[in-house]
Amino acid sequence: MVTFKVAIVGAGPAGYFTAQALQNAQSDDKKFAIDMIERLPTPWGLVRSGVAPDHPKIKTVSKVFEKIATAGNFRLFGNVELGTNVQLVDLQAKYDAVIIATGSSVGRKLGIPGEELPGYLSAADFVPWYNAHPDYTGVDVPLDADTAIIIGAGNVAMDVARMLALEPSELDPTDTANHAIEELKKSNIRKVYICARRGAEHAAFTSPELRDLPKLEHTNVIMHKSDIAAAITAAGDAPEKDVKSNLDAMLAIAEQEKTNHARTMEFLFHHVPTEIKGAGKVQEVIFKTPSGEKVVKCGLVISAIGYEPAPLNGITYEKGKVLNADGRVKENVYVVGWAKRGPSGVIGTNKSDAAAVIDLLIADLKSPKAAGDINDLIGAHKVITQTHWEAINTAEVSLGEPLGKPRVKVADKSELLRLGGL
Ligand code: NAP
């Protein structure tokens, strides 16, 4: 029996499903010792800092992650950053394989004038702000004007719009960051526009998310019937299944009885942003529309138009992805998840993606190295192990219990280390 040592960098869904694929590939003659390295003191990646807090069901996948983490051949090294506390070349020397699962955390740029103005944010900053990510607690989110514009027609745009258009007390029973609930309760925003540059037939929303919108109890959701009718015509007689399902859900929204809440979320299609303008801060967005130029006044613009990976030393990037061939990067280095295929797909997509990369990795394996492991590299640095993380997890859940929340997320790194017992 041989044991291969594998380091997975990044404790998000792609990282955990990769660990699971390795666990599933074990046999009587081949085992894996898995070390998962994560720069934050907390694991779970986007399940903790990306998924919208009003969609708690999606987060139940964390139970699967904890099962993988406690299966016996898995160690967590949280609070350890690749490039700072350990270097890729050193991991390559010690491990039989190193797998990059660091996702795509940087928001794509629109590339139009005005993106530098205060009041313009990327979803890549706003989402981790409301999800208590330690690096984003200081993001300035101006909520004083009555209108916000979201650019993009994907599920992230929809999450962001909902968070701004919900009655904020609806967030009380969720794990939204305390600082965000406080700010959102003071928000003057009453109108949120979601602006798509193309027609509804091209929207990247998925239909379960669209079908959830009419369930909002305190928000008018407006889609214009003429937009959806035009999209149905444009989609033709035999639209793809997903497109048809989306258009059915959108038509139902467009046809629903009007409500009269104080807060409104409105979808604008064929609105191409060309400039963000304002004197020292965002005041309006100029759009190109089929009927000409249109100006929409607002105090906040959030773009949700996709992500790029944050660069890692020793890794080559191309077109917003780690340069790779089906997950192979270079000598004993592999990549999975958004860093491999770009920022698309839901959490479950990572399962089949990881399994395919692990098949290739196993085909590449020779004989196991005997060169030590990460413990030889990190010295006295404070590491969050699975036991420390479980202490943090328990503490956060207990903080939430009396408040009727699934947990109160702690955003301060030193407080997280303290809760972990370090
Ligand atoms: P996405 O689904 O790729 O959507 C990006 C949107 O941005 C598209 O509508 C795109 O329009 C638009 N866009 C791109 N460049 C633009 C530009 N320069 N100007 C205006 N619009 C622009 O990306 P995402 O919303 O970031 O989501 C990423 C992935 O996570 C998706 O697979 C999504 O389904 C998933 N996700 C799932 C959930 C969930 O299941 N609840 C929640 C969040 C995210 P074009 O089509 O015209 O390029």
UniProtKB/TrEMBL annotation:
SUPFAM superfamilies: Nucleotide-binding domain (SSF51971). Keywords: FAD, Flavoprotein, NADP, Oxidoreductase. Residues 4-165 form the FAD/NAD(P)-binding domain. It holds the Pfam family Pyr_redox_2. GO terms for molecular function: oxidoreductase activity. Gene3D superfamilies: FAD/NAD(P)-binding domain, NAD(P)-binding Rossmann-like Domain. Its cofactor is FAD. Belongs to the ferredoxin--NADP reductase type 1 family. This is FAD/NAD(P)-binding domain-containing protein. It comes from freshwater metagenome.
